[in-house]
Amino acid sequence: MSTITVSGTPGYDVVVGRGVRHSLGNVLGPNVRKALLIHAPVMSAEAEAIREKLKGTIDVLLAEIPDAENAKRIEVAAFCWGIMGQSDFTRSDAVIGLGGGATTDLAGFVAATWLRGVRMVHIPTTVLGAVDASVGGKTGINTAEGKNLVGAFHAPAGVLVDLDLLDSLPEMEIRAGFAEIIKAGFIADTEILDIIEADPAAAIRTDSAQFQDLLERAIRVKARVVGEDFTEQGLREILNYGHTLGHAIEHTERYQWRHGAAISIGMVFAAELSRLTRGLTDIEVDRHRTIFRELGLPTEYPAGRWPTLLATMQRDKKARGSLLRFVLLESIGRPVVSGVADDSLLFAAFHEIAS
Ligand SMILES: NC(=O)c1ccc[n+]([C@@H]2O[C@H](COP(=O)([O-])OP(=O)(O)OC[C@H]3O[C@@H](n4cnc5c(N)ncnc54)[C@H](O)[C@@H]3O)[C@@H](O)[C@H]2O)c1
Predict the structure, then answer these.
(1) How many angstroms separate the alpha carbon of residue 134 from the centre of ligand 1?
(2) pLDDT confidence band for 341 (50 / 70 / 90)
(3) Annotated catalytic residue: which of 222, 251, 258, 287?
(4) The domain made up of 2-165 is a member of CATH 3.90.79.10
(5) Would you list the domain boundaries of the chain?
(6) Does 105 sit in the ligand 1 pocket, CB within 6 Å?
(7) I want to staple 60 with a disulfide (CB 3.0 to 4.6 A). Which of 51, 178, 235, 265 is the partner?
(8) For 171-219, how does the pLDDT look when each residue is reduced to its tens digit (9 = 90+)?
């Protein structure tokens, strides 16, 4: 079992290991009498087991919500608020999120908004949820106009990454989640890349020592960044490595692609742009392609889609009211955030990843 502390006011711990979900009562703390456990359908048996375990100390109510992105809707938040209202939830009660990133995003949003914020504990059950969505306090839902447009920053009281719960993940979900782990390798902890390259098959096996080590390393990178920049005023932007193009691909693919697949291509693109503008070497760029291919993640995108991608990125830029910005690498492990105004450079980088 390992504990990673995220600093802040107050800070909180991310605990990683097998069986760590059993310390939920302690993380909720002595003052919580009632908790709403919001869970993905796939976690219904586990949710019931948690309710049984806490019986007598904490009254746990269960809210099963729709799977995946269907969870992140205002109607689902209202369903949860309804349960809390009917059960007289007070400010000293709590919310627990059990599931992938979509579930914890919705649960976090419910916790952030009920009585202007109640205690929240995340139990992420996907790789992406563990290393990214549950750490850092961003919560949110989607609207008809786009993804994650409505939300709040609301730090959890604790995060329990129980590897027992990740054993049932389909391999495709693990591979997709690994894109964020690899990202942490490229922007900060380069040992992540060495460990994966040494034995990619072992890296994605949930019972391997490497798997736990890699999860912890990626969480440490995220914890360090969000600990310094909770509300995304500066440093946190480096977490967007590969995401400028990645988001445009997700949008173009009408959100039918896994996030990890889209940002894998986005990272190869960002590496090519870094080669053109920041002197990243050919070897460093190739390292991107090789590691994503080893994990079965895509590195190319159809050539004819460039105009759509550029238009989508530019719309995103307008929404943020700033230049088209990219996280680039001066070398592996040394990210810089930079505005790129020259479309011909972007096209040249895209040409290198076009299929
Ligand atoms: N808040 C943040 O900072 C942040 C960061 C990154 C991503 N996100 C959000 O996270 C979401 C994506 O998260 P995700 O990739 O975890 O997707 P997800 O929550 O949709 O889960 C993916 C699928 O895995 C299934 N699943 C979950 N746990 C399982 C398990 N243990 N065994 C078997 N199946 C399981 C789910 O039912 C679902 O079908 C997006 O909505 C994204 O916006 C948020």
Answers:
(1) 10
(2) confident
(3) 222
(4) no
(5) 2-165, 171-351
(6) yes
(7) 51
(8) 999 999 999 999 999 999 999 999 999 999 999 999 999 999 999 999 9
